[in-house]
């Protein structure tokens, strides 16, 4: 593993090779709703109830591959999910089940988490996204989860917060063994329920669900919760959403998130930048599938639930959101999101989610 330095991100990025006049407030958004800054960059999905892409920062021009990744700023990635499963076998919550990692005491939300790992060079960034020690780990299963499904379309803010707080506890219990097994640090984010607009250290977001790398917390709009049943008529859709957002938290804590974002910006090529974004998003889909697989026995998720879960992934493909089957977007086509969700649902090996070594046509 390459040497990794640590930097506390906050406010505007430090002056340096990444800094340009007009650089946006630290923290860039991409997610399930409107663009984070209320603007729209070229090549991104138009705004809509379940669409919209991020406004990316200006690209740095030139620079050697060994340039230090100092002053890149914050990254806030957010998105929704959707997937298929093969061989998903859920069951009822049985007291005789030998749940994995059940002795682990999940910590409370960490509102002052340790800094995220930042690679020193572009070469190290490339190594992190393709050869992270995280890929050598496995996700335990079955894992106990007490976050029973709710009707998110009619739930109050207090009920939403309670549900997602319990789901976050389940997510940390599932992911703690592989993260610490890779000698990395896992952090439990808080989940903040908000209305139509939320301003965080990552900027201002509209109706969305997102992970903000600036404070390492998760945010979920109650208006998105009301709309989820319209997009995907599935009782597990909201849990797929939150698991995807935690997938971005995993990418942040492993250095994959900042590395991919840095490499995309440094490419000075929009299509390359979009490709890195799609690799991040489809990997988060894959991680969400692995989580659903891990808690399926505890929550009673059955093979008959797979179609609804698949519809969730499918509904948020770039082509489905825009109605343009030829679009080259920043999240991935429906078929790509289904493909990677399926990968996660069908495997415990985190290496199965290495989208950064996958052929381009698998992250189209």
For this entry, give a set of tags.
disordered N terminus; 9% strand; 9 strands; 364 residues; three-stranded mixed beta sheet; mainly alpha
Short description:
The chain is mainly alpha-helical and 364 residues long.
General description of the model:
With 364 residues, the protein is mainly α. It has one domain. Helices cover 36% and strands 9% of the residues. It is built from 9 helices and 9 strands. The protein has helices at residues 122-131, 157-181, 222-231, 237-254, 256-266, 270-299, 306-315, 318-322, 334-345; strands at 4-7, 29-30, 76-77, 116-119, 191-194, 198-200, 203-205, 209-212, 217-221. Strands 5-9-8 form a 3-stranded mixed sheet. Helix 6 crosses helix 9. The radius of gyration is 19 Å and the shape is globular.
Task: Specify the number of helices.
Answer: 9
Order of strands in the sheet with most strands: 5-9-8
Q: Main sheet, how many strands, which sense, barrel?
A: 3 strands, mixed
**Topology, number of strands:** 9
Task: Set out the fold topology.
Layout: E1 4-7, E2 29-30, E3 76-77, E4 116-119, H1 122-131, H2 157-181, E5 191-194, E6 198-200, E7 203-205, E8 209-212, E9 217-221, H3 222-231, H4 237-254, H5 256-266, H6 270-299, H7 306-315, H8 318-322, H9 334-345
Parallel strand pairs: 2-3, 5-9
Antiparallel strand pairs: 1-4, 6-7, 8-9
Helix pairs in contact: 1-5, 2-4, 4-6, 5-6, 6-9, 7-9
């Amino acid at each position: 593993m390459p040497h990794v330095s640590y930097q506390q991100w906050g406010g505007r990025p430090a002056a340096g090779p990444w800094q340009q006049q007009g650089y946006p407030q630290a923290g860039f958004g991409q997610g399930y709703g409107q663009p984070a800054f209320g603007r729209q960059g070229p090549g991104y999905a138009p705004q809509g109830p379940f669409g919209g892409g991020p406004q990316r920062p200006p690209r740095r021009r030139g620079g050697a591959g060994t340039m230090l990744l100092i002053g890149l700023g914050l990254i806030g990635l957010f998105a929704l999910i959707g997937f298929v499963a093969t061989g998903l076998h859920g069951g009822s919550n049985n007291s005789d089940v030998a749940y994995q990692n059940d002795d682990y005491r999940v910590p409370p939300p960490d509102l002052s988490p340790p800094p995220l790992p930042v690679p020193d060079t572009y070469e190290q960034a490339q190594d992190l996204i393709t050869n992270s020690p995280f890929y050598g780990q496995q996700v335990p299963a079955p894992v106990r989860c007490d976050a029973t499904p709710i009707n998110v379309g009619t739930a109050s803010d207090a009920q939403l917060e309670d549900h997602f707080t319990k789901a976050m506890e389940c997510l940390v219990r599932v992911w703690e063994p592989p993260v610490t097994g890779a000698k990395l640090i896992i952090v439990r984010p808080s989940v903040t329920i908000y209305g139509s607009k939320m301003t965080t250290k990552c900027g201002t977001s509209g109706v969305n669900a997102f992970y903000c790398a600036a404070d390492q917390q998760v945010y979920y709009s109650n208006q998105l919760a009301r709309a989820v049943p319209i997009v995907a008529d599935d009782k597990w859709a909201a849990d797929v959403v939150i698991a995807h957002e935690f997938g971005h938290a995993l990418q942040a804590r492993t250095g994959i998130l900042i590395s991919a974002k840095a490499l995309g910006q440094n490419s000075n090529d929009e299509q390359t930048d979009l490709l890195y974004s799609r690799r991040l998003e489809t990997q988060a889909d894959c991680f969400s599938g692995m989580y659903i697989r891990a808690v399926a026995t505890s929550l009673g998720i059955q093979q008959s639930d797979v179609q609804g879960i698949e519809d969730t992934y499918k509904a948020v493909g770039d082509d489905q959101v825009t109605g343009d089957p030829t679009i080259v977007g920043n999240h991935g086509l429906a078929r790509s999101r289904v493909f990677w969700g399926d990968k996660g649902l069908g495997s415990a090996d985190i290496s199965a989610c290495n989208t950064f070594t996958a052929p381009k046509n698998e992250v189209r």
